[in-house]
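thought: user wants a sequence for this fold. calling inverse folding tool.
action: design(structure=
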């Protein structure tokens, strides 16, 4: 449905109506001087015709069918009453027919109304031609009949002229409406694309926030957990009187220092990767994102450094893993180890296993902590709760893997990640 015209369109239509009125008034005078009709023109009749063909054009875009009907009636009535104006009245009728096709809001009404108007105009044309055919005063007495009679030739010319006239107005109107529709569709698509770009930008920002949150969680949580355990061990060691207690305290403080340095270094590298090259910083060539399953023994050594028993085992024949899978498994292992340090208890043991099968690579992180406490590890009593576990599931889903996490039947907590091996990895 084409919208109504604005002030600019109405102003243009008003100027068009004024131009038609002035032009028609001038041609009435000229046709009268040229004695277009035998009888002199009636002034008030000429004024009504000029007003009838020009005034309605002001509303041609708002009420095109009504406007065209009024112009058609004024056109026929004027000529029937001897008003000598056939130039601007034809222009006004053409504009009216064009406006129906270009501005009518109902395509069905536009089709029916134009068919009725064209039919009525041709009916009036044939009636006029019939009247002229029986008027013998129009032909000179000494005129002969050639190949085509003068009346027939005049009738054929009139019919062909009107066919081209109305067909042109009809076609141009429909084309204008189609062009307006194409423009509206293009504007709608452009607006939709703009909204889609905004949504994409918002989603990108949200994904960046999630990614940054994961990176910070991965970098900070593990080292802070280790430092907290080491600080507790140092506090207990300093409270004893035995000489070896001082040595244990020194070892714990050194472990705290090392973990703090590693955390600061990884945070620095993380911030560097978040900066654009335009900020004068190059991308970090090493950092948390480059740690892989090859670093799992170091992760287990960190746990041993806290005084807790921990083991690392590789089961099966190792195969090279893709960089994304390799990094993802390490991060899942670090998240599981960190939560074990937080919730499993000081006496719990930790077992990390990396298992290679013909179809998949599996990572298991199990502890012997208290089941009830372990169940509350991720902030929920059932698997699937907590941001830590959500992050692990999302990371594994990105590489086609799955996650199982929950309390073990005999005590403790188990996290198992499984990622299918690609064909190339199995062949290797």
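)
observation: tool returned 428 residues.
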């Amino acid at each position: 449905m084409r919208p109504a015209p604005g002030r600019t369109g109405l102003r243009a239509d008003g100027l068009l109506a004024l131009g038609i009125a002035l032009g028609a008034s001038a041609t009435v005078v000229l046709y009268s001087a040229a004695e277009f009709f035998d009888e002199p023109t009636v002034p008030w009749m000429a004024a009504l015709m000029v007003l009838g063909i020009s005034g309605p054009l002001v509303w041609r875009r708002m009420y095109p069918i009504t406007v065209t009907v009024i112009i058609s009636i004024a056109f026929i009535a004027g000529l029937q009453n001897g008003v000598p104006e056939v130039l601007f009245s034809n222009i006004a009728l053409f504009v009216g027919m064009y406006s129906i096709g270009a501005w009518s809001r109902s395509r069905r009404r536009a089709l029916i109304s134009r068919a009725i108007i064209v039919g009525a105009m041709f009916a009036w044309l044939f009636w006029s031609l019939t009247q002229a055919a029986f008027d013998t005063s129009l032909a000179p007495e000494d005129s002969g009949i050639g190949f085509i009679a003068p009346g027939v030739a005049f009738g054929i010319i009139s019919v062909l002229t009107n066919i081209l006239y109305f067909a042109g107005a009809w076609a141009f109107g429909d084309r204008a409406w189609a062009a307006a529709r194409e423009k509206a569709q293009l504007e709608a698509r452009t607006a939709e694309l703009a909204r889609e770009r905004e949504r994409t930008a918002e989603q990108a920002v949200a994904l960046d926030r999630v990614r940054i949150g994961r990176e910070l969680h991965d970098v900070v949580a593990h080292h802070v957990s280790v430092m907290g355990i080491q600080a507790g061990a140092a506090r207990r060691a300093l409270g004893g009187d035995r000489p070896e207690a001082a040595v244990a305290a020194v070892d714990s403080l050194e472990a705290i220092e090392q973990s703090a340095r590693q955390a600061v270094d990884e945070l620095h590298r993380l911030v560097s990767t978040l900066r654009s090259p335009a900020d004068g910083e190059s991308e970090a060539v090493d950092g948390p994102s480059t740690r892989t399953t090859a670093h799992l023994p170091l992760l287990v050594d960190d746990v041993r450094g806290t005084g807790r028993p921990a083991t690392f085992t590789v089961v099966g024949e190792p195969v090279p893993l893709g960089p994304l899978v390799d990094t993802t498994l390490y991060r899942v292992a670090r998240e599981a180890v960190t939560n074990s340090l937080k919730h499993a208890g000081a006496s719990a043991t930790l077992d990390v296993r990396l298992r290679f099968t013909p179809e998949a690579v599996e990572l298991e992180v199990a502890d012997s902590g208290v089941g009830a406490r372990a169940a509350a590890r991720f902030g929920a009593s059932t698997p699937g709760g907590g941001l830590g576990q959500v992050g692990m599931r999302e990371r594994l889903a990105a590489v086609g893997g799955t996650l199982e996490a929950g309390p073990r039947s005999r005590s403790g907590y188990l996290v198992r990640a499984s990622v299918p091996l690609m064909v190339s990895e199995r062949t290797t």
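thought: summarizing for user.
answer: Here is the designed sequence. The first helix runs from residue 7 to 33.
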